[in-house]
Amino acid sequence: MPFKSTPQPFKAAINAVTIGVGDKAMTIGGENVLPLYTFDAPIANPPKVGFEITDTGLELAIPGIAALYEGTSTIGERAKKAETLEGVDFISLKFAGADPNGENKSAEDCAAVAKEVASATSLPIVVEGCGNAEKDAALFEKVADALADRNVLFMSAKEENYKAVGAAVGLAYGQKVGAESSVDINLAKQLNVLLSQLGVKNENIAINPGSAAVGYGFEYVASTMERIKAAALSQNDTSLQMPIVTPVASEAFNVKEAVVSEEDMPEWGPAEQRGIDMEISTAVSAITYGSNAVILRHPESVKTVSSFVKAMTE
Amino acid sequence: MGKFIVIGERIHCISPAIRKAMDQKDPAPILKRAKEQLDAGADYLDVNIGPAEKGGEELMKWVVTLLQENFDNVPLCLDTANKKAIEAGISVYNRQKGKPIINSADAGDRIENIDLAAANDAICIALCSKSGVPADNDERMVYCQELLERGMGLGMDPSDLWFDPLFLVIKGMQDKQKDCLEAIHMFTEMGLNTTGGLSNISNGMPKDIRPIMDAAMVAMAMANGLNSAIVNPCDKRLMETIKSCDIIKDNCLYADSYLEI
User: Fold this and answer.
1) Where are the domains of chain A?
2) Is A310 exposed, middle or buried (0-12, 13-18, 19+ CB in 10 A)?
3) Domain A38-309, classified CATH 3.20.20.20, yes or no
4) pLDDT tens digits, A2-24
5) Residues contacting B72, CB < 8 A, separation 6+
6) Bridge partners of A92?
7) Rg for chain A (alpha carbons), in Å?
8) In this complex, which of B1, B3, B253 lies closest to A189 when CB atoms are compared?
9) Residue of B nearest to A189 (CA)
């Protein structure tokens, strides 16, 4: 008997969330099928690939990135270069320098940096904080004001600061709120419930349910994302129908495979290539398990992952 | 896999306020009860207009339109002995949020309601009795087969027949309760959907006892597979029990605020 394929789209769908404005605005989510299951129904908004720029420029230590930025001196110029990368859909601006335990840059300084980047690029912008809950809340408020007309996604509101971030970013400025939990499926749902009880509309929320580099507990990330998509689609759980955005860069480039130098481990080959490999493997795995967008650090990864997405969804 | 479906029972012509509102076509009391039930977590609303021999068609159309226009096409369960009124209700029914449910067919005089459901692509509650209370589960299963065969013979999907084991009042029929749970278990094993007028079990008990008894029954029935019931969603204890059982059965992902959503 010949095989007859029966498409199985779900009645429920992931929310479509638009980030950015104008021609280059992007929409993530909207699908009513499991990740990359184009044989069940078309996926209108394939997963998006973002390129990370940090305010501190630490990534310039990687030769391939330094080469991209050759001849630039300001973060605005770097953003302009980033825009030309093959396969890039959005810019993710990370304020690593705002960390109170590091450079402790003021929220006002960060807002000025954000403005500079925004005027240099028309790509959609995602803003990543420094990870300190209190500082991020203050920082996001200033940046949300500075980029009021750019429809920015802020990463992230956490259990410790969701009220401040949700109120400032989501309610006062109508920007998009990222809800972050660390591989805790119940907290992922709870944060969405709390944000919506606060008044943030579901279609203005994206989630980062946690990430890890492959080989470093990624199976927990995978099963969490799998359960989220199952609840969203097969159980029509409206508290989990938010698209997933996964920051891969900081995970992939911080594990020993990417960090140990070639001098220390000659048999492993060049460190940069290992970082790229970790980043690509992690990003592709994340997309396969349900990320609607990934944030990457290396131009080579952006190129490869975007061509993977194209091959899988076209 | 899906969440338990709560069919709100409070729009019922036995209630004097609702009866009067239906007679006078006064929207306010009906809308108030609908809102209370939806706020409390009802998925479907039962609309019981009684036998409605006179003017039933017009009345059902009026209530269906009234509720769906005011509550974002809320799905409804049409409950009357007047078949023409059910058809009239379906003719104005919007399916955006779910198919209409016909309440109900049995294996006796009301078996033709299955034909009505099949002809109108509706869900039909299939009561496993003929005349009066089935003596045992052998009898229940015979009726179940009759109803199932009739529906499938007319091209219905078995999932659109929601089998009602006939919940019986505890005061007087205490010895029949285990049968009822066992019947739910058997329907579930057959892959069938189940529902029923669960609060019937606590009829005649003191007001403060009823929510306790209903909650215990729903938990035991859900453990046996019950996936819907026609109940009073404004009964907080009952709703908390249903939501908790949905978590335990993994029908719904846990979050600390699960009782609030």
Assistant:
1) 38-309
2) exposed
3) yes
4) 898 899 999 999 999 999 999 99
5) B97
6) A52, A126
7) 19
8) B253
9) B255
